[in-house]
Amino acid sequence: MRTQLLFLILFVLLIVAFFIDVMVGSAHLPLADIWKVIMGGSDSVIYQEIVLNHRLPKAITAILAGASLSVAGVLMQTLFHNPLAGPDVLGVTSGSSLGVALLTLGSSTLPIWLVSSWGQVIAASIGAALILLLVVVVAIRVPQTTSLLIIGMMFGYFAGAVVSILQSSSNPDTLKLFITWTFGSLASVGWAQMAVMAPVVISGMVIALLLQKSLNILLLGKNYAAGLGISVFKLRLWVIVATALLAGVSTAFTGPIAFVGITMPHVARGLFRTSNHRIILPASILCGAIILLLCDCVSQLPGFQGTLPINAVTSLFGAPIIVWIIVKNRG
Fold first, then answer.
1. What's the rounded Cα separation, in Å, for the pair 213 and 270?
2. Do 65 and 289 form a contact (C-beta atoms < 8 A)?
3. What is the domain count for the chain?
4. Which CATH number fits the domain that encloses residue 269?
5. What separation, in Å, do the N-terminal and C-terminal C-alpha atoms of the chain show?
6. Mean pLDDT over each residue of the chain, to the nearest integer
7. Which domain does 21 fall in, by range?
8. Scanning 10, 133, 172, 272, which has the fewest C-beta atoms within 10 Å of its C-beta?
């Protein structure tokens, strides 16, 4: 009964946060007018443009990105038995950053249309895919999960080093373009990008949900899982693929968004007081979507000049939670 009630509360909070996010912005829109636009009963061309082509896709992007990063965090924390593992530990996020850095900083002669929008998405996707292939090859050859974690981190450090070299030798204009991408943005995803982002995110989530039973067994240890007939090798590969799809596509379309993937699984576990993936995975989806919607609202609050970087806002929320996790685990 308690579990069903919590899910109901989270679902209601998701709906409330969604409409608040659509309402908040440089121009305040009444909820009644927003509802008319969504239902197709509004005659205001301006309201239709603001809601349908800007705020609605941005809010849906927040839901997709928050949910995908949270699920990826659950998968990594279960695979590595590490409460502070996040979706970036395999280096996929760093691969996306490297791809965008090579595009924006590697050449100043490219046309501006190639360096922006779809160009950055494609570059980030290629970078993430290459790192994924390297991680899969390593996972096949290295059976130890801890070694895989270390190698994934090394991939990330290597990509970060290349990005730093490119930054040090780039001109101010291209450097500003790359730095802006690293801030993260939910507003850069329109309906055309959504048609690509949503199916990939949903595919990654479906894979994760199909692994629920095996992940629960894996919590008891690799030897126990193997004794019950679970192929730990295949499970690990599927977890890597799902995480890469979820974290890679989110980073490609929105830029790097910190802390959501690490913190939201812990919030879900704290609320439901269980580690059962049949509960934690859907709970993390809801928690991640809600927190990213709220962070987007905070980034647009009146009093700020323009919009705050979403990456900075999520860090403000996430850093205290990480400190609390460390202190709690020491106790």
1. 21
2. no
3. 1
4. 1.10.3470.10
5. 30
6. 85
7. 2-330
8. 172
Structure confidence at residue 264 as a pLDDT band (50, 70, 90): very high
Tokens of 295: 């962070």
Q: What is the CB neighbour count within 10 angstroms for residue 174?
A: 20
Cα–Cα distance, 330 to 183 (Å, whole number): 32
Contacts of 12 (CB under 8 A, 6+ apart): none
> Angle CA(31)–CA(34)–CA(39) in degrees, nearest 5?
125
> Cβ(135)–Cβ(90) under 8 Å?
yes
Distance CA 96, CA 181 (A): 11
Residue 293: pLDDT band with limits 50, 70, 90? very high
What separation in angstroms does the CA of 164 have from each of 67, 88, 120? 30, 18, 18
Within its chain, how far is the Cα of 66 from the centroid? Answer: 5
* pLDDT exceeds cutoff 70 at 329: no
